[in-house]
Structure formats: C-alpha cells, structure tokens
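Summary of Year 1 activities. Much of the first year was spent building the evaluation harness for sequence design. The harness presents a backbone, in tokenized form, and records the residue chosen at every position. We chose the following record to illustrate the format because it has been used consistently in internal testing since the harness was completed.
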C-alpha cells in the first residue's frame, strides 16, 4: 500500500502531466500494477512504449523506470521464456 501511495503521490505532484492525465492514472490499474511488481520483485510486461516527455498520458514504462521496476514488452517476455510458435 505504501508503494502505491508513493506512486500516486509522484504522479499527482509531477508538474509534467496535466490534471486529466493524473486523474486517469489515479483511477486506473497501472499504479497498482507497478506497486505490486515493486513489492514482489516482479517484471511488468506491457506493449506500451515509453513517452517520458508526454503531458496528457502517464505511460506504464515511464512509471516503472521512475520506481526502478523492470519492464519489458510481450515479445521480449515470450523470447526470454523460450516460447515458440509453429504451424502444425
């Protein structure tokens, strides 16, 4: 809970983002996801791309970077797990 509070506090006090972005972030699941991953030493998997200079949207990879939570995309995850697909 403390990690989630820190994440939301960071988002709400970050002057880079407009009020609509912080409201959307506070009402969504991304903050909870990053807090859970931080608490359990997990990796967040997302297809979002970082947008460190965005004003209207708080991107999941940017939050992960801010809180030193590892993040990767779906394809990197599948590759690291050795998943292969084949036509039968």
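For this record, the design step produced the sequence shown next.
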């Amino acid at each position: 809970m403390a990690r989630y509070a820190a994440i939301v506090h960071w988002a709400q006090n970050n002057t880079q983002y407009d009020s609509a972005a912080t409201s959307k972030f506070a009402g969504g699941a991304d903050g909870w996801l990053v807090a859970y991953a931080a608490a359990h030493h997990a990796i967040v998997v997302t297809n979002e791309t970082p947008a460190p200079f965005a004003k209207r949207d708080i991107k999941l990879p940017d939050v992960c970077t801010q809180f030193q939570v590892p993040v990767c995309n779906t394809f990197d995850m599948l590759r690291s797990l050795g998943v292969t697909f084949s036509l039968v």
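The CA atoms of residues 73 and 79 lie 10 Å apart. Quantitative recovery figures across the full test set are reported in Table 2.
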